[in-house]
């Protein structure tokens, strides 16, 4: 690990600001992310809850133990007075960018419908384990191709946890993942997502027993998304190379 971190020529800077340095090592397909903890607030959080690097490690383990896909953490620690984490790369496009670049044509509508079903199942699995993601925006979901189909992976897992106030975080996550305008999701696709989401809760759970409870969550989330878009313009995906579609086109969601 010391040799890897010292390989200055091998690392390419992805992002560099006052809060984070993110680099990528193409040869080993690894990401490096450092965290500044010089502010008083972050120093207090670090003392009470551990470093952001350690929180990333713990959040990743929570996801993986629940059966969700997340990039493996290879190492975490402190380097030059900065906390850092080294993570494996998770192949595949980010969800919003894939919707923008690959899934606008009518002939791909069936593939997109399956994608929303898989997305609902993934987030349902997460929430059925009472785990909340720290920032469940669409581009923190990766469509990861594999030999048995694709899976949806979750990245940026620093704040992933089992919160005390789970329902609040549940609704926040659902709002975040549904912050997609009509270019990227139809009303029917929202229904597909929510049906798949609720299906992951165990028999006997309130969301299995009560249709009214399911409808209340769905209505609350959609109302909050509309209110959000009344204040802020929807985010657009970033165009990505067309060849990325070739790795996904023939795949179904992995069972």
TrEMBL record:
Top-level taxon: Bacteria
SUPFAM superfamilies hit by this protein: Protein kinase-like (PK-like) (SSF56112)
Pfam families (alphabetical): Kdo
Gene Ontology molecular function: protein serine/threonine kinase activity
Keywords: Kinase, Serine/threonine-protein kinase, Transferase
InterPro entries: Kinase-like_dom_sf (IPR011009)
Protein name: Mn2+dependent serine/threonine protein kinase
């Amino acid at each position: 690990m010391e040799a890897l971190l010292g390989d200055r020529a091998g690392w390419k800077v992805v992002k560099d600001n006052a809060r984070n340095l993110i680099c990528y090592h193409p040869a080993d397909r690894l990401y490096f992310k450092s965290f500044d903890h010089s502010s008083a607030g972050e120093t207090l959080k670090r003392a009470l809850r551990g470093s952001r690097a350690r929180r990333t490690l713990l959040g990743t383990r929570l996801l993986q133990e629940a059966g969700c896909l997340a990039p493996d953490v290879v190492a975490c620690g402190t380097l030059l007075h900065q906390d850092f984490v080294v993570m494996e790369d998770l192949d595949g496009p980010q969800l919003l960018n894939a919707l923008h670049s690959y899934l606008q044509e009518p002939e791909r509508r069936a593939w997109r419908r399956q994608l929303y079903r898989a997305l609902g199942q993934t987030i349902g699995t997460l929430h059925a384990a009472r785990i909340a993601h720290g920032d469940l925006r669409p581009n923190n979901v990766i469509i990861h191709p594999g030999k048995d189909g694709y899976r949806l992976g979750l990245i940026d897992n620093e704040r992933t946890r089992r919160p005390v106030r789970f329902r609040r975080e549940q609704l926040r996550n659902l709002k975040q993942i549904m912050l997609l305008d009509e270019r990227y999701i139809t009303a029917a696709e929202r229904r597909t997502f929510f049906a798949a989401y609720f299906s992951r809760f165990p028999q006997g759970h309130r969301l299995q027993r009560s249709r009214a409870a399911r409808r209340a969550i769905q209505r609350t989330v959609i109302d909050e998304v509309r209110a959000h878009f009344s204040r802020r313009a929807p985010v657009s995906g970033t165009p990505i190379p067309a060849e990325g579609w070739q790795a996904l086109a023939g795949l179904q969601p992995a069972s």
